[in-house]
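Subject: sequence -> structure tokens, single chain

Hey, anyone have a minute? Need the predicted structure for the following. Not urgent.
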Amino acid sequence: MIRLSICIPTYNRGAYLSDLLDSILKQWIDGLQVVISDNGSTDDTRAVIARWEKLVPSLKVIWHPVNIGPDRNFLSVVEAARGEFCWLMGSDDRIEPGGIARVMSAIDQWLGIAGFSVNMAAYDAQFLTPLPVGKAVDLDQDDVITQSDAAILTFMRHFGYLSAHVVRRSLWNEVCATGEPRQFLNAYVHVLIMGRMIQKVPCWGYVHQRCVGWRSGNDSFMADGWFNRMRIDVVGYSQIADAFWGHGSSGSRRMRSQIAQTHVVRHFSYAKTHGASPQSLRDSKRLFGTYLRDTPAYWTHLTPWMLVPQRASLIGRWIYRTIIKPHRK
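Reply:
Had a minute. Here:
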């Protein structure tokens, strides 16, 4: 019986896959399956997987001849899995030592649960240096939340990070069978599905120990520029918030406000302090006005950054890097 399928959607990540597969093989236990769905990669992904097929037990690979988009690839990899639970996994991440055992223990302990999220550790691009990272979930111990709105809002910021979630496959499939996820191919289809799972079975857990390692500086969505990357967050989460609670509802405002004060403000402040074009900054302001103006974070987190002249932002960054930061070491 397969208890857990580790589901890895990938595209042109041949340089990173070995780190992930090695971290899985070192912790291999009975009841485990690995499923890889390749999204028409043009690098050496096929050769890398061929080497690992001989080493990893119960490895299943789906080859898409062309790129079908990230969302469809997410759906494809879970559809091919056979485990009672599926652990979604970014192909450039890795599983922390003991992570599989902790996840299996949670599966055994939390009977009837819709799914659960796990804590993450952040590293540099080579997985050599740990990086400080703020809390994505305001919980300091293992816990289970049994109220649907509370669970969705507690984990929403964390849901965007693909590798930190373990879902009951049968319930995931129930949500997909409605056809609704196919209407939300906005890079966050998994967020919509997990939210719907919680609304069906309001029981979602959290493993506070770090089970997965995140590799920084490797966001594939940044290939189209910072503005388009930020737009994915603003538009994608707004669409999902309205689907959960209805346009103009308090629940939708609360969810969009969470994303605005975390994901969105990070993108915008980085752009402003790193010399983004004036046109892209104006486009951002229009985007915020369309999707986020009715949220508290628009006024408390985004407006201050919009009002600060870019020249002042650049000077402030120079002062920090050349004067303040050296004295803090």
